[in-house]
Amino acid sequence: VQLQASGGGLVQAGSSLRLSCAASGGTFSRYDLGWFRQAPGKEREFVAAARWSGGRTYYTDSVKGRFTISRDNAKNMVYLQMNSLKPEDTAVYYCAAGRTIVTTIRSGIAYDYWGQGTLVTVSS
Question: Do residues 3 and 98 touch, judged by C-beta distance below 8 A?
């Protein structure tokens, strides 16, 4: 599975962005999909994930109520709608695909495929 993330940019605090991730190859609909981010000087962290079946989604606490992950299996796309952006959301955002279980879905090591990352910069 090849993943291509896009949609990053420079925005002001309080703004919105929608990140997109296009997938090719593999059986997209059978993969759990995640978004991770890495801020300068920090480790990569989990942001959100969507299970391949059942529609269950997961979020890290700091983005709950502001970010929404969604997937369109027919288009092989996964999105991250980000509202009310804060300067602390500044990071490179990566999409990922893998076959995870509930206990590992927030862990980067559970994902086999990664996009190249897209930079989100939120100014105060």
Answer: no
pLDDT tens, residue order, the chain (124 aa):
999 999 999 999 999 999 999 999 878 889 999 999 999 999 999 999 999 888 899 999 999 999 999 999 999 999 999 999 999 999 999 999 999 888 899 999 999 999 999 999 999 9
Q: Are 90 and 63 in contact (CB under 8 A)?
A: no
Q: Are 83 and 16 in contact (CB under 8 A)?
A: yes
Is residue 40 within 8 Å of residue 18, measured between CB atoms?
A: no
* Cα angle for residues 31, 7, 60 (degrees, 5° grid): 55
Confirm if 78 and 111 have CB atoms less than 8 A apart. no
Residue 72: both structure tokens together: 């369109």
Burial letters for 84-114: b for 16+ Cβ neighbours within 10 Å, e otherwise?
ebeeebbbbbbbbbbebeeeebbebebbebb
